[in-house]
Write a structure and sequence with these properties.
The protein is of the alpha/beta class. The protein has helices spanning 6-11, 16-42, 111-120, 210-223, 240-257, 265-274, 284-301, and strands at residues 74-76, 83-90, 99-103, 125-128, 133-134, 137-138, 151-154, 157-166, 173-182, 185-197, 231-234.
């Protein structure tokens, strides 16, 4: 699907031709993604190698055996045991300067690694897009204390939950204010805000784009992470809902600066994500949600 600008493309979305074009683009990238996975198996030392995720104890740190970080941009923890199922995500500079870390929901035995990553990467905000349990299955281990005022011991890091409140206008979004203290740096506590959207079903989409946009407004407005600080984004596997959120957030930032962006902004971001972490934006309905949410936001401003 071609157009002079992304906004013109959004205007054409309701047509059958545009929907078919979106589906074709998604299918094409799924084939490319599978090709990269085959390459990873056939060339363990190649550009898209996943070999680090299979080494020794690392294998047991993956929630899903087919949702793995590429070697070339995986997050590396300090110390001997440096593996965590997480990927540095940097979109092309003309799209956004926002930095992200896409990761899986922590396992019971990787909570300490998760908080080590947050501390070492100086993460100011965490976006969580899954419930801890969905359809009777554990999707993410709770990695924060159970109540305000309580502390969770995560190895060298003490995690204090200062407050836990839903947004007044969108209670599906819960805001948790967290303080971290590191045993090696007792006098240097750090503040982290977790934004937890509990209304996004696995492999599907929310009933409305409003909570997603409200979450982004809270993240970029109230929390306002520095440009050089990565935001951790996760769901269960760290690919479907995670990739979808990153595309929407990055596109909203791009359009705020360049509303006449030439070509298909979502497709450009989507293709970039797929080369950085496999299966990002997992389903066609999630891919369509990117366009629908951005179109809703743009039309609301008119």
């Amino acid at each position: 699907m071609t157009s002079d600008s992304f906004l013109q493309l959004l205007d054409a979305l309701p047509t059958r031709e545009s929907r078919e074009s979106l589906a074709a683009t998604f299918s094409e990238e799924v084939r490319s993604d599978r090709g990269r996975m085959r390459q990873a198996l056939e060339q363990p030392d190649g550009e898209f190698s996943l070999s680090d995720s299979q080494l020794g104890r690392n294998y047991d740190l993956n929630r899903y055996s087919d949702m793995l970080p590429y070697n070339h941009n995986r997050v590396r923890l300090a110390g001997k045991h440096d593996y965590i199922n997480a990927s540095h995500i940097a979109l092309p500079a003309h799209i956004t300067a926002n930095r992200y870390i896409a990761t899986q929901g922590p396992l019971p035995h990787s909570i300490g690694d998760f908080w080590r990553m947050v501390w070492e990467q100086r993460v100011p905000a965490i976006v969580m897009l899954a419930r801890t349990c969905e359809a009777g299955r554990r999707k993410c281990e709770p990695y924060w204390p159970p109540a305000a005022g309580a502390t969770l011991d995560a190895g060298d890091i003490a995690v204090l939950l200062q407050s836990e409140l839903p947004l007044d206008d969108h209670p599906e979004v819960v805001v948790r204010r967290i303080e971290l203290r590191h045993a090696a740096h007792p006098g240097l506590p750090r503040a982290v805000t977790q934004l937890h959207f509990v209304g996004w079903p696995d492999e599907r989409v929310p009933d409305s784009p409003l909570p997603v946009l409200r979450l982004i407004r809270e993240l970029r407005g109230s929390v306002a992470p520095p440009a050089d600080a990565p935001v951790v984004v996760h769901c269960s596997a760290g690919v479907g809902r995670t990739g979808t959120f990153i595309v929407i957030d990055a596109a909203m930032d791009c359009l705020a600066r360049a509303p006449d962006y030439p070509g298909d902004l979502v497709a450009h971001a989507f293709r970039s994500l797929r080369t950085q972490r496999t299966t990002m934006v997992q389903t066609l309905v999630q891919y369509q949600l990117c366009y629908q949410t951005i179109a809703f936001a743009v039309s609301s401003r008119k």
